[in-house]
Amino acid sequence: MKSTLATLLALASVAVAENGVVNFPLNRGMPHFRVGNVRQNVKRDTYSQALINNITGGAYYAEVTVGTPGQKVSVVLDTGSSDLWVVSYKADLCTDSSIQRQWGDSCDKTYNPSKSSSYKVLEEDGFEIRYLDNSTAAGDYITDDLDIGGTTIKSLQMGYATKTVRGAGILGVGYSSNVASTRRYPNLIDQFVAQKLITTKAYSLYLNDRRSDTGSILFGGIDKDKFIGDLSILPIFMAKGQAEPIHFEVEMQSVSLVLTKNGKTTKIISTDPSSSRTSTIAILDSGTTLSYLPSKITDQIHTKLSVYVDDIWTGLTFIDCNYLTSHPDLRLSFTFGSNATISVPVWELVLDLLGETQSELPFKMPFKQACIFGIQSTADFQEDGFDEDWALLGETFLRSAYVVYDLTHHQIGIAQANLNSTTTDIVELSRADGGLPSGLTGVKEQQTSKDSSGNTESASGSSTDKDGAKETETVTAGSPAATGTAASGAKQSDSAAAGLSARGGIVGALAVAWLTGFFALVGGAVVAL
Asked: I need a surface site. Which of 26, 74, 110, 307 has the fewest CB within 10 A?
């Protein structure tokens, strides 16, 4: 993020303590403005930490405090990695303007260990991490006290980054089997249990509507008012011979494209997901801004929607913004297991982020107004040595889902998110339960609202228009690729995540400076390797 983009972040700093639990508000607005606070009562032994939604939808930030006395620092929530690290006040990115120009970013709230009486060095130069988007951070491993969600974790091991290309640290909440250290250590979620703050290593993630200012991560519990219908329970995928999970991977059976066409309902492709020969393994990662699917799926979607694939400058896929008004009920439905379906609405897929800057792009698109498409292809990662037959479901998917991550029992709970919920109904989780509770049901239906055209929006993000009909196309995750190529553009060959988020690579050399940071932010994939 370039500093001009950093000014789009709002960092919530005020917490309200109730019954030993604190719920931080998630606010979105100009930096260092406090855009109100939300008071909520939650039960004991659950901890709710608010997340700050970058106005572009590029990241979710938590403001935590580190040290004694506490220093407020900004960290990006990331389910795709396992280390917490903070940016040093003397990090190269913070002190060198040439590095800031190179990477299109500047530092936010940083940490100074000399001001903390509880700081200790564990391993000098022992911390080094690289993410899927090729961003890196390096420095020391330290311990210090962390305040998160209104509770303090004592002597937590974390990275202290003196070299970084990111202006904010990362709050990794994955398995400790995936920490960057050569020696495994108890990370944040491990210490929550070890210090008897919660009884099981589990948390629930509610990112909420992209157009909303609110969202949270709830440690040790499930909020039944934040999802619709039944909470489906999925096993976390492990390959044959794998002793324990590394990432939050689940089996995805199919993806369905739903849109209106000529007032008729037509199934172009009708495939029973249960008859699929194979499924696609999908990583659920809050640190990735867009979502990535195998080309055998994206090629069909891209062709149907006549997208434009820019494989020279940005590596991103663009779509006509007109879909926001011409097809207000456009959506993608993702099927997992036997009965779990998450429907992603048009405003999560067609991202109107360019505004007046379209005229500054170094290429011309075949749309009067271009939007970034929320679904990209994993074929881009092949250049980095990865098989493309997998999915990375980032924020454009996760905002439509309520997801429970159970690291103790290796399970994922998932349901359609009840967007903009204003109430809570917390169920505490326990290790003794033997897994996520079965038969857990949320609210009956989505809280309704009106869109800009006056249409009533439904639980899936769809709306009732004058046609009222839908065309459904189902692409089975394990099915062969369809014939044809993505419309309006050649197949992508440059790595979107690697090329863009190397910030100073393809885009940095060829495009205007602030677009470097912008596309890097949008295309970032924060999954630890």
From this structure: 110
Q: What residues contact residue 186 under an 8 Å CB cut-off, 6+ apart? A: 157, 176, 194
- Residue 62: which H helix or E strand, with range? strand 60-66
Length of the chain: 529
Among this protein's residues, is 406 annotated catalytic? no
Q: What is the spatial distance between Cα 501 and Cα 519, in angstroms, rounded to a whole number? A: 8
Phi, psi for 113 (deg, rounded to 5): -65, -25
Helix or strand holding residue 252 (H, E): strand 249-259
Q: What is the 3 state secondary structure string of 393-431?
A: ECHHHHCCEEEEEECCCCEEEEEEECCCCCCCCEEECCH
Residue from 176, 174, 165, 175 nearest 87 by CA: 165
pTM of the predicted structure, to 2 decimals: 0.80
Which of 45, 78, 108, 144 is the catalytic position? Answer: 78
What gap in Å lies between CA 416 and CA 345, rounded to an integer? 11
Task: Please provide the DSSP assignment of 40-58 as one string.
Answer: ----TT-EEEE-EE-TTS-
Q: Which of 15, 127, 101, 121 is nearest to 528 (CA)?
A: 127
User: For the segment 124-133, what is each residue's pLDDT rounded down to a tens digit?
Assistant: 999 999 887 7
Task: Tell whether the torsion through CA atoms of 164, 165, 168 and 169 is positive or negative.
Answer: negative
Alpha-carbon span 54 to 348, nearest angstrom = 14
Catalytic residue, candidates 147, 209, 213, 285 = 285
Separation between Cα atoms, residue 334 and residue 355, nearest integer Å:
29
Residue where the block lists tokens 């390797």: 529
Residues 392 and 248: their CA atoms lie apart, in Å, by 10
Residue 273 φ/ψ, nearest 5 degrees = -55, -30
Q: What are the phi and psi torsion angles at 339 (to 5°)?
A: -150, 10
Catalytic site includes residue 285 = yes
- Model pLDDT for residues 196-220, shown as the tens digit of each residue: 888 899 999 998 888 776 678 888 8
